[in-house]
Amino acid sequence: MNLLLIPGLLCDPDLWSHQTSCLAEIADVSVADITGGETIEMLAQQVLSSAPERFALAGLSMGGYVAQEIMRQAPERVERLALLDTSGRADTDDQRERRGQLIDMSRTGKFRGVTDRLLPILIHEDRLDDDALTERVKMMAERVGPEAFHRQQKAIMSRPDGRPDLVKYDLPTLVMCGRQDALTPVALHEEMVELIPGAKLAIIEDSGHLSTMERPQAATALLRYWMLHG
Protein backbone atom coordinates (compact mmCIF):
# COMPACT_ATOMS: atom_id res chain seq x y z
CA MET A 1 0.00 0.00 0.00
CA ASN A 2 1.13 3.55 -0.73
CA LEU A 3 0.94 6.08 2.11
CA LEU A 4 1.12 9.77 1.30
CA LEU A 5 1.76 12.17 4.21
CA ILE A 6 1.14 15.91 3.94
CA PRO A 7 2.88 18.26 6.40
CA GLY A 8 1.48 21.43 7.92
CA LEU A 9 2.33 25.13 7.73
CA LEU A 10 6.09 25.73 8.09
CA CYS A 11 6.63 21.97 8.34
CA ASP A 12 8.57 19.53 6.20
CA PRO A 13 9.21 15.75 6.24
CA ASP A 14 10.64 15.93 9.77
CA LEU A 15 7.06 16.36 11.01
CA TRP A 16 6.53 12.75 9.95
CA SER A 17 9.99 11.29 10.63
CA HIS A 18 8.85 8.70 13.19
CA GLN A 19 5.90 7.63 11.06
CA THR A 20 7.96 7.46 7.87
CA SER A 21 10.47 5.19 9.55
CA CYS A 22 8.14 2.96 11.53
CA LEU A 23 5.41 2.50 8.92
CA ALA A 24 7.82 1.65 6.11
CA GLU A 25 7.40 -2.06 6.87
CA ILE A 26 3.71 -1.96 5.94
CA ALA A 27 3.60 0.80 3.30
CA ASP A 28 5.55 2.67 0.66
CA VAL A 29 5.67 6.02 2.47
CA SER A 30 6.24 9.44 0.88
CA VAL A 31 5.89 13.02 2.15
CA ALA A 32 4.37 15.69 -0.10
CA ASP A 33 5.81 19.15 -0.70
CA ILE A 34 3.24 21.92 -0.19
CA THR A 35 5.50 24.95 -0.48
CA GLY A 36 4.96 25.84 -4.14
CA GLY A 37 1.39 27.11 -4.53
CA GLU A 38 -0.71 30.06 -3.37
CA THR A 39 -4.07 28.26 -3.23
CA ILE A 40 -5.21 25.02 -1.66
CA GLU A 41 -6.54 23.97 -5.06
CA MET A 42 -3.14 24.46 -6.70
CA LEU A 43 -1.33 22.63 -3.91
CA ALA A 44 -3.68 19.66 -4.20
CA GLN A 45 -3.10 19.53 -7.96
CA GLN A 46 0.65 19.58 -7.43
CA VAL A 47 0.50 16.78 -4.86
CA LEU A 48 -1.73 14.67 -7.11
CA SER A 49 0.57 15.16 -10.10
CA SER A 50 3.39 13.26 -8.40
CA ALA A 51 1.36 10.91 -6.18
CA PRO A 52 0.82 7.19 -6.84
CA GLU A 53 -2.34 6.25 -8.70
CA ARG A 54 -3.94 4.99 -5.45
CA PHE A 55 -2.85 5.79 -1.91
CA ALA A 56 -3.75 6.14 1.73
CA LEU A 57 -3.66 9.82 2.67
CA ALA A 58 -2.83 11.54 5.95
CA GLY A 59 -2.54 15.29 6.49
CA LEU A 60 -1.78 17.33 9.61
CA SER A 61 -3.01 20.90 10.09
CA MET A 62 -2.57 22.66 6.72
CA GLY A 63 -1.87 19.20 5.35
CA GLY A 64 -5.39 18.31 6.40
CA TYR A 65 -6.75 21.22 4.37
CA VAL A 66 -4.85 19.99 1.31
CA ALA A 67 -6.04 16.43 1.97
CA GLN A 68 -9.65 17.63 1.99
CA GLU A 69 -9.06 19.40 -1.34
CA ILE A 70 -7.60 16.18 -2.77
CA MET A 71 -10.83 14.49 -1.70
CA ARG A 72 -12.75 17.12 -3.68
CA GLN A 73 -10.57 16.76 -6.77
CA ALA A 74 -9.77 13.03 -6.91
CA PRO A 75 -11.63 11.00 -4.25
CA GLU A 76 -11.35 7.85 -6.37
CA ARG A 77 -7.55 7.84 -5.85
CA VAL A 78 -7.72 7.83 -2.02
CA GLU A 79 -8.09 4.44 -0.33
CA ARG A 80 -8.29 5.67 3.25
CA LEU A 81 -7.96 9.07 4.93
CA ALA A 82 -6.49 10.41 8.18
CA LEU A 83 -7.04 14.01 9.24
CA LEU A 84 -4.75 15.10 12.09
CA ASP A 85 -4.93 18.29 14.17
CA THR A 86 -6.89 20.12 11.52
CA SER A 87 -10.35 21.52 10.78
CA GLY A 88 -13.13 21.28 8.25
CA ARG A 89 -13.90 24.97 8.57
CA ALA A 90 -12.66 28.00 6.65
CA ASP A 91 -10.74 30.73 8.44
CA THR A 92 -12.65 33.31 10.45
CA ASP A 93 -11.99 37.02 9.91
CA ASP A 94 -9.96 37.09 13.13
CA GLN A 95 -7.82 34.18 11.97
CA ARG A 96 -7.16 35.86 8.63
CA GLU A 97 -6.17 39.05 10.42
CA ARG A 98 -3.68 37.16 12.61
CA ARG A 99 -2.21 35.42 9.59
CA GLY A 100 -1.79 38.78 7.89
CA GLN A 101 0.06 40.09 10.93
CA LEU A 102 2.45 37.14 10.81
CA ILE A 103 3.09 37.72 7.11
CA ASP A 104 3.82 41.40 7.80
CA MET A 105 6.11 40.42 10.66
CA SER A 106 8.10 38.06 8.46
CA ARG A 107 8.42 40.69 5.73
CA THR A 108 10.03 43.16 8.13
CA GLY A 109 12.99 40.85 8.71
CA LYS A 110 11.47 39.06 11.70
CA PHE A 111 10.76 35.68 10.10
CA ARG A 112 12.63 33.82 12.85
CA GLY A 113 10.37 35.47 15.39
CA VAL A 114 7.29 34.00 13.74
CA THR A 115 8.07 30.52 15.02
CA ASP A 116 8.78 31.80 18.52
CA ARG A 117 5.40 33.48 18.50
CA LEU A 118 3.67 30.33 17.24
CA LEU A 119 5.36 27.78 19.49
CA PRO A 120 3.01 28.24 22.51
CA ILE A 121 0.03 27.26 20.35
CA LEU A 122 1.86 24.60 18.33
CA ILE A 123 3.04 22.34 21.15
CA HIS A 124 1.91 21.35 24.63
CA GLU A 125 2.94 23.89 27.28
CA ASP A 126 4.95 21.22 29.09
CA ARG A 127 7.12 20.78 25.99
CA LEU A 128 8.12 24.43 25.57
CA ASP A 129 11.30 23.74 27.55
CA ASP A 130 12.09 20.66 25.45
CA ASP A 131 15.00 22.16 23.51
CA ALA A 132 15.33 19.19 21.17
CA LEU A 133 11.70 19.42 20.10
CA THR A 134 11.51 23.21 19.82
CA GLU A 135 14.76 23.28 17.81
CA ARG A 136 13.36 20.73 15.36
CA VAL A 137 10.23 22.87 14.91
CA LYS A 138 12.33 25.99 14.34
CA MET A 139 14.61 24.22 11.88
CA MET A 140 11.63 23.04 9.85
CA ALA A 141 10.47 26.64 9.59
CA GLU A 142 13.95 27.77 8.52
CA ARG A 143 14.02 25.16 5.76
CA VAL A 144 10.56 26.16 4.50
CA GLY A 145 11.55 29.84 4.52
CA PRO A 146 9.63 33.12 4.40
CA GLU A 147 8.55 33.07 0.76
CA ALA A 148 6.92 29.66 1.02
CA PHE A 149 5.43 30.75 4.37
CA HIS A 150 3.71 33.68 2.64
CA ARG A 151 2.30 31.37 -0.06
CA GLN A 152 1.10 28.87 2.51
CA GLN A 153 -0.66 31.51 4.59
CA LYS A 154 -2.41 32.91 1.51
CA ALA A 155 -3.56 29.42 0.60
CA ILE A 156 -4.90 28.77 4.09
CA MET A 157 -6.66 32.15 4.26
CA SER A 158 -8.56 31.54 1.01
CA ARG A 159 -9.51 27.89 1.57
CA PRO A 160 -13.18 26.96 1.37
CA ASP A 161 -15.37 25.63 4.15
CA GLY A 162 -14.95 21.88 3.73
CA ARG A 163 -17.83 20.76 5.95
CA PRO A 164 -20.41 20.35 3.15
CA ASP A 165 -18.03 17.88 1.46
CA LEU A 166 -17.23 15.79 4.55
CA VAL A 167 -20.63 14.11 4.43
CA LYS A 168 -19.76 12.70 0.98
CA TYR A 169 -16.75 10.68 2.16
CA ASP A 170 -17.04 6.97 1.55
CA LEU A 171 -13.79 5.47 2.83
CA PRO A 172 -12.16 4.48 6.14
CA THR A 173 -11.43 7.78 7.90
CA LEU A 174 -9.46 8.48 11.06
CA VAL A 175 -9.69 11.88 12.76
CA MET A 176 -6.91 12.39 15.29
CA CYS A 177 -5.72 15.24 17.49
CA GLY A 178 -3.78 16.14 20.60
CA ARG A 179 -5.94 16.60 23.69
CA GLN A 180 -4.37 20.03 24.30
CA ASP A 181 -4.33 21.20 20.68
CA ALA A 182 -4.80 24.95 21.11
CA LEU A 183 -4.85 25.74 17.39
CA THR A 184 -7.50 23.24 16.27
CA PRO A 185 -9.22 22.06 19.46
CA VAL A 186 -10.85 18.68 20.06
CA ALA A 187 -14.31 20.14 19.37
CA LEU A 188 -13.39 20.78 15.73
CA HIS A 189 -12.41 17.14 15.34
CA GLU A 190 -15.61 15.97 16.99
CA GLU A 191 -17.47 18.09 14.47
CA MET A 192 -15.69 16.39 11.56
CA VAL A 193 -16.39 12.93 12.98
CA GLU A 194 -20.09 13.76 13.23
CA LEU A 195 -20.11 14.76 9.55
CA ILE A 196 -17.95 12.00 8.01
CA PRO A 197 -19.84 8.69 7.71
CA GLY A 198 -18.21 6.01 9.85
CA ALA A 199 -15.23 8.17 10.88
CA LYS A 200 -13.31 7.25 14.02
CA LEU A 201 -11.96 9.77 16.53
CA ALA A 202 -8.63 9.29 18.32
CA ILE A 203 -7.34 11.75 20.93
CA ILE A 204 -3.70 11.70 21.97
CA GLU A 205 -3.23 12.68 25.60
CA ASP A 206 -0.65 15.25 26.72
CA SER A 207 -0.13 16.57 23.21
CA GLY A 208 -0.64 19.85 21.45
CA HIS A 209 -1.01 20.62 17.73
CA LEU A 210 2.09 18.79 16.45
CA SER A 211 1.03 15.37 17.68
CA THR A 212 3.24 13.37 15.32
CA MET A 213 6.33 15.00 16.83
CA GLU A 214 5.16 15.48 20.42
CA ARG A 215 3.83 11.95 20.92
CA PRO A 216 5.29 10.09 17.95
CA GLN A 217 4.81 6.56 19.29
CA ALA A 218 1.11 7.14 19.97
CA ALA A 219 0.53 8.83 16.60
CA THR A 220 2.35 6.06 14.75
CA ALA A 221 0.46 3.31 16.58
CA LEU A 222 -2.87 4.89 15.68
CA LEU A 223 -1.86 5.34 12.05
CA ARG A 224 -0.63 1.76 11.89
CA TYR A 225 -3.99 0.48 13.12
CA TRP A 226 -5.79 2.73 10.61
CA MET A 227 -3.58 1.43 7.80
CA LEU A 228 -4.15 -2.21 8.68
CA HIS A 229 -7.75 -2.17 9.88
CA GLY A 230 -9.34 1.10 8.78
Description of the molecule:
The chain is an alpha/beta fold and 230 residues long. It has 9 helices and 6 strands, in the order E-H-E-H-E-H-E-H-H-H-E-H-E-H-H. The protein has helices spanning 17-22, 40-50, 62-73, 93-122, 131-157, 163-166, 186-195, 211-214, 216-229; strands at residues 2-6, 28-31, 55-60, 78-84, 173-178, 200-204. A 6-stranded parallel beta sheet has the order 2-1-3-4-5-6, sandwiched between helices. Helix 2 (40-50) crosses helix 3.
Chain-wise SSE layout:
Blueprint (H helix, E strand, L loop, with lengths): L1 E5 L10 H6 L5 E4 L8 H11 L4 E6 L1 H12 L4 E7 L8 H30 L8 H27 L5 H4 L6 E6 L7 H10 L4 E5 L6 H4 L1 H14 L1
Parallel strand pairs: 1-2, 1-3, 3-4, 4-5, 5-6
Helix pairs in contact: 2-3, 4-5
